[in-house]
Design brief:
With 78 residues, this protein is an all-beta fold. The protein has no helices and 7 strands. A 7-stranded mixed beta sheet has the order 2-1-7-6-5-3-4, with no helix packed on it.
Length: 78
């Protein structure tokens, strides 16, 4: 699936991901390939991204929103 993580200042990640773990306001959750469409609010925490490499990448955010639609994940983060 394609993942974009964007802040008001810059794009911090754009590429293919196998798994995205997010800090939701009601708890942490994961997005995988072919996930159902959704929009959700995020709280302060870390986004974990597993791409084609086996080493996970982490991005610290202060909150935001996520949209999942047709294997594209868009994170608008603070």
């Amino acid at each position: 699936m394609h993942l974009e993580i964007t802040t008001p200042d810059k794009e911090i990640f754009s590429g293919e991901a196998r798994l995205v773990q997010l800090p939701g306001i009601d708890g942490s959750y994961e997005i995988l390939e072919n996930h159902a469409p959704m929009i959700s609010v995020l709280k302060k925490g870390k986004i974990k991204v597993l791409s084609s490499s086996e080493k996970p990448e982490f991005f610290e955010i202060n909150g935001g929103v996520i949209e999942v639609l047709k294997n594209k994940v868009l994170v608008l983060a603070e």
